[in-house]
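Most newcomers find our protein records easier to grasp once they have seen one. A learned vocabulary of local backbone shapes supplies the integers on the structure line. Here is such a record, shown just as it appears in the course material:
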Amino acid sequence: MKTVSVYAPASMGNVSVGFDLLGAALEPIVEGEQHDELPFGDVVTVTALAATEATAATEVPLHLSCSGAYARFLPATGNIVTRCAQEFIRRYAPECQGLQLTLQKNLPIGSGLGSSASSVVAALAALNRYFGQPLNHAQLLQLMGELEGQISGSVHFDNVAPSFLGGMQLMLADDAQALPSFDNWYWLVAYPGITLSTAKMRALLPSEVPLATTIRYGQQLASFVAASYRGDEAQALAALNDVLAEPHRAAHIPGYQAAKTKLKGLGFEAVGISGSGPTLFAVCRDKAVAEQGRQYLQHHYLTNQYGLVRLCRLAQHGVQYKESQHDAVNQS
């Protein structure tokens, strides 16, 4: 029986400087015995239903089972993985007789770590591979943005693109462009353990932005992109400043402003909100500083047992596939 499993990494949307236009995939830096911190992304597995279950149904049966550290927080009905399968089958696999779907939910919901995007990316990439890849990368990315938008409240690609493709991704009109990244940067992310609705956090933003703010936003993003291509770390780090969304969201994330002040004092060169929060990210180039920040956030930013702190690098690969007939992992 054919089985396809796909892992889709966590991601940061906006990356402070690129609201809805910039995103980055994350992978934890694993040292010693830290293997309990992995995986840092959701896994979706697709296989056929048993013949007796499939042929007895009047509609295409889709059976979903969920596991993982954050599975208990999933809604009882209307899971996005099932919705992805329903839409994919309707459009591209009407001959399907039924599927068994499994979601390993490793990312907290409403965290600012691209949780819904990870599930969507893993599900659609697995379905596309299972059904013989009827969609190319560009088509698949468009579908991922569409389905993820059903949860977040609007279609944007700054989480699905990096989770799917890896690295730092700049959103274009109808595609995504990988940006050069800095391998020596430490990306520290901390989720306090509380949930914030992406749709509600977006509602905090004004419907109109002053011209001066718009110009400043464009300058910051252009400066970061140019510095990335030139390899100018100092300018890239200086540009990681959110003038568009953070001023309206920071006060609504408990402990964020105090943590940002402390991390800056420790020597982190940039601190910002991951996506719409409440996860924060902080960047430095010194491992000792990174470890100090990790310890501080572990003791002062987390509010319960569901919170997490991860020291990461950018995940250069996006989705990872595992197929039963080959028993091997391919990276895309």
